[in-house]
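for the writeup, i need someone to sanity check this before i put it in the appendix. the sequnce is what the collaborator sent (i think, or maybe the updated version? ugh). structure was predicted straight from it, no edits. if anything looks off just tell me and ill rerun, i have time this weekend
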Amino acid sequence: MEKGVLIPNLFKTEYRKIVSVLCKLFGLVHIEIAEDITNDTFLLASETWGQKGIPENPKAWLYTVAKNKTKDYLKRHQNFINNITPQIKESQSNFEELNIDLSEKNIKDSQLQMIFAICNDVISPNAQIGLALRILCGFGIEEIAEAFLTNKETINKRLFRAKEKLRTANIKIEFPSEKEVKERLENVLTTIYLLFNEGYYSSTNNQPLKKDLCLEAMRLSFLLIQNKKTNLPVTNALLSLICFHSSRFESRINDNGEYLLYSEQSKHNWNNELITKGEYYLNQSAKGNEITKYHLEARIAFWHTRRNETIEKWENILQQYNRLLQIQYSPIIALNRTYALSKTNGKKIAIREALKIDLKQNYFYHSLMAELYNGIDKELQIIHLKKAINLTQNETSIEILKNKLQKACR
């Protein structure tokens, strides 16, 4: 593999591992030092490999350089010792003997501890996602800016403020006690859930689906599953719904990069392996006696992967939506429910329910209303298509809606 491809790939997979271990070593209060050392490691790789060629084991090379740079930093900043972690204090007489553990187990432990440190109420949900993308997923600032439809300067400021708040609150990088896990896990799962949604329902101007965000959400969920303290029914439910939704990646976008409605998707493109995994984690989620929104959304996603269009399928989906609205009302959930309602009770009843939902400034609302009015009222179908076009910034969605508008106007 050429350097121009290898280094970005390694940055994606190894940055998060190195920076998590170093953050644990230095403490969250000195997160910038961990980031600087990791960035310097990749910068040196880019310079050295360009001159001397790619080493036989690039990953081992990065780990060795990161360890050496860490020890060099500590030697140059002896006065730094009083404010850092016990592990470093114990080694201050001989930094060469300092154990910077980049083993697979410690990397996983460090990342898991970082998830709980980052997903904290002292910073906003957007800041939690931003830090997760940067530290736990290895995303560059430009990539994060694109995901949030903003610029690099805004993201840098947001991440800086988030780090300051975590520092001021003296948040530790450590695994919570068993009593705390359930309470703090809720924030972690919410962050992963929002991260997945940002990828699956991407609002990026020219990308209706960002697989890299979805896959990172899946990876972080699996990281939780691998630890017995966080391998809980609710965690399995979240991973289940991610697997089910991800199984339909290839069918959601056509060859022209256009988003396809569920009814337009080719079921032959669904990923059977991910569907099977989704079913496994759904079964695991049933071992508890608590029903969360993730359980219900996973069941809805399960029924969406059933290939036969039966009344039983849509009745089950409608039933799960009804239960979901009971435990957590959301206009978007209510809107999604109306599509299932149209399948079981007809479009006219679904329209009556949809008109009660306060989402008049939402692109998805008008897009669905146009679908429901299709074949019933052409004039109202056209009105909703025009409103949907005005309310979205996604160029791909605009093109799809314009095509539908042309057909409706014929």
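Residues 127 and 158 are 7 Å apart (CA to CA). The mean pLDDT is 88.
thx in advance!!
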